[in-house]
Amino acid sequence: MSFASYANTSRFIVNLGLERVSRLLSLVGNPERKIKAVHIAGTNGKGSVCAFLQSILISSGLKVGLYSSPELCDIHERIRVNGENISETALSNLFSRLEKAAEAMDDKPSPFEIWTAAAYLHFFEQNCDISIIETGMGGLSDATNVIPAPSVSVITRISFDHTDYLGNTLSSIASHKAGIIKENRPVVTINQPDDAMKIISRTCREKSAPLRVVPVPPTELSGIYESYNGTTLSIAGLHQVENAALAAETARLLGIDENHISYGLSHATHPARLEFLSPNILFGGAHNPDGAAALSQSLTRLYGNEKFAFIYAAMRDKDIAGVLKILSKHASRFVFTTVPENPRSADEETLFQIADELNIPYSFSPTPADALSAVSNEKRVIITGSLYLYKYIKASVN
Predict the structure, then answer these.
(1) Does the pTM of the predicted model rise above 0.70?
(2) Mean pLDDT by 10 residues, the chain (398 residues)
(3) 66 φ, ψ to 5°?
(4) Closest of 154, 125, 130, 156 to residue 57, by C-alpha
(5) CA-wise closest residue to 122 among 31, 39, 207, 42
(6) 63 CB-near residues (< 8 Å, 6+ apart)
(7) How far is CA 231 from the centre of its chain?
(8) What is the DSSP letter of 316?
């Protein structure tokens, strides 16, 4: 397997820790120490906060790097500058240089560590004014956490996910997320569940890190979008008000004026989050119960008690029962499918067993395209579960 092919297997491998990535970065000049960054951790909402903040900062005239994962359709989405994906030529060049550095390491870097090093190196060499860095998993031992002093650390809503790695209590999960908090560097979060808030507050006190807890402002519906303080958000969903408020407060800490904040919030894009792929097909990713609750809240707000056909696929390590239980009140039926070429995807037996236990109506289609055919006569279809499903659905709709 080539070095690039190995690097691109990152979504199937978890290898937490900072030693390998720190060594790799040291061999290419420690670019992570030379960039200005916002570091974002949390269970739900990280990608949306990144999208809002990127839009705000670009609108203010800054050159903005963004590192996020996983990609929706193309691996080049993971590293962006001013909203443009990294080119294949640039990525190949970075991988070639990192391969040479990795040859000098006894403990070889993981795929995610290679991508993280590539992002930091690219943002430094592109002279980005600021870079937005989304954690991969957790925070404390996440490869992105080699940033010594972020301009702002942001912690989005914390709930249960990746419990095999982060622990099965909110306190344990919050301890990992709070690992991105650095000495004397400001922290922005929303009002978290008590167990999580205690951890964040204590960590901020211990590190003399100023803490801003952002209130969620009142909002009203404007079409399918939420509007608050005179600004209509460009990403749908009631839960996006919280994410927008986090991005706005972060931008204020960076010295961005209110006009650019308002413009950025109203022009951000973030596919697969309550996105209409056609007039009757709505994609709304919900890979854990907290995400399902947010989707449920938005569906009720938009459509009241209307029932929908759902297409659903999930990774087998997720809380599938928790998600389906929440969404079942909106469902006339579920059409289960799998994510192609993904060994983590839950198979039909797993999905059937859970559906039977919950007593919900279902059928199975082996591919996303087959699932779309199965619901072709429905008035409205909601596609949800794993975001890995998105590119296959989008290709079939288009």
Answers:
(1) yes
(2) 77 74 97 98 94 98 96 94 97 96 92 96 98 93 96 94 76 94 98 95 98 95 92 95 97 98 97 92 91 94 95 93 96 96 92 96 96 95 95 88
(3) -140, 125
(4) 130
(5) 31
(6) 81, 82, 126, 127, 128, 129, 130
(7) 23
(8) T
